[in-house]
Amino acid sequence: MRIAYAFFIGVLLLTSQDVCLSQTVTSSKSTVVPTSPTVPPIKDVNPDVLQLVIDDQWDRGNDMFGKGRVKPQAELDWKVIGEHDVSRHQSVRNLLAAGKLKTINDFSFASLIFQHSGDPSDLMLAHLLSSTAVGMGGSGKWMMAATMDRYLQSVKQPQIFGTQFITKDGHSWTMEPYNRTTLTDAERALWCVVPLAQQDKILKQYQDGTGEASTGMEGCK
Length: 221
Prior knowledge:
mainly alpha
């Protein structure tokens, strides 16, 4: 049985050097569904990495730089997505080995790609990639928290920030296992994660079937 993780990525283009990743899928009032993903003219990013992350999100029904959600979660083919993820991971590893990742955007997008894995080594790499992007001046503190939570879950330990919502059947959602006392809300805020009370509201939205809210603090970098 596949376990699904709620992890929705929207993108706000800030400058040519800094693409901010948040947890919220962008939305659109338009009813026109695009047939191919939007490819933006972003500078300071390896074009191969950019295409890989666009494909990563398109597979998940999200036009990352355009219309936002374009396909319902229920219509996604997770077997095919998993196969594509493996291929994308190898492509990013090849780029890393060749020294082709150099900018904040490169490392941020590579982190997002590796976030989509259940393998502890992939998830630790995702955390290190996001940490590298932040160390270079990027706006990815929430991603650092999310990758750590995913890594902890992958080694059968409870998450500590509260970024992950989990379902086994698409209906019953939980954040467990979750150690809520490891960090204070003030410490979560340092990593752009909303406080426990707000997380509980978001969890209820998932349980009610309306969940796509963000655990990322608005405006936090």
